[in-house]
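Researcher: I'd like a structural prediction for the single chain below. Treat it as a standalone chain; there are no partners to consider.
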Amino acid sequence: MDHTLSTISGTNGMPLKIGEIHFVNNSRVIWPVFKFFLRLLKEKIRKRIKVHYSLEDLHNYIDPSILPKSLGGELEETEAFDEELVDTIVKQNVKYDDLWKSRTHS
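Model: Treating it as a single chain, here is the predicted structure.
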């Protein structure tokens, strides 16, 4: 079962270090479902997840000078995101989607 849970958490097959994960402006209705899925994650990851119900709360953790305007920050959207990295992720996602489709439809 641990293998399944670690696969769900997405941390055991990738060279990835998660510093913190921030969720902003989430519906309080979703919170019970979210709490359930949090239990499936390793404790180390759970401790790194922060839930914010306002932008002001987010700004207590992350300086607005490095956030996009859509999150109450000072940066334009294009300045806040590494477009090359986003393109690479999208291409990889398409690659793995195609691989998955070819394996499931064979």
